[in-house]
Write a structure and sequence with these properties.
This protein is an alpha+beta fold and 122 residues long. It has helices at residues 3-15, 19-22, 44-52, and strands spanning 26-34, 39-42, 59-68, 71-79, 84-94, 97-104. The protein has a six-stranded mixed β-sheet, covered by helices on one side. The radius of gyration is 16 Å and the shape is globular. The model has no long low-confidence stretch (mean pLDDT 94).
Length: 122
């Protein structure tokens, strides 16, 4: 698989709750950083266990995917049918496997009224 296919396969496996299929896509030296909460998840087993045990039935849809050599960036919509979030993920691959993810989960916010004359709602 090329790098785009690896990342697409990871998100597809998570969307199906098929964590057994997701694990082999991660490098032996895998690390995931969540800068917003100051957490680092070290190792394939920890990352898979964390996602397996996360509460809810989350569905994942890739909104945008950009690839540059061994770097891939995705914007995903993640929803449990009650709450919908966005995840921005920066992937680095090595030897055809994901070795590092740096991921951001921005909070939704209300548009500010003082700029309403210059913007439109998405």
């Amino acid at each position: 698989m090329n790098n785009v296919e690896v990342i697409s396969a990871l998100w597809a496996a998570f969307d199906r709750f098929d964590f057994a299929a997701a694990g082999p896509l991660l490098h032996d030296s895998f690390v995931c950083d969540w800068p917003q909460s100051g957490e680092r998840i070290r190792g394939r087993d920890n990352f898979i266990a964390l996602n397996q045990n996360y509460p809810g039935q989350w569905r994942i849809k890739i909104v945008r995917l950009l690839a540059f050599g061994d770097e891939v960036v995705t914007e995903c919509e993640v929803s449990d049918e009650t709450v919908t979030n966005r995840a921005i993920s920066f992937f680095r691959l090595k030897d055809g496997l994901i070795i590092h993810i740096r991921e951001f989960w921005p909070d939704r916010m209300e548009a500010k009224a003082d700029r309403a004359q210059w913007v439109e709602q998405l």
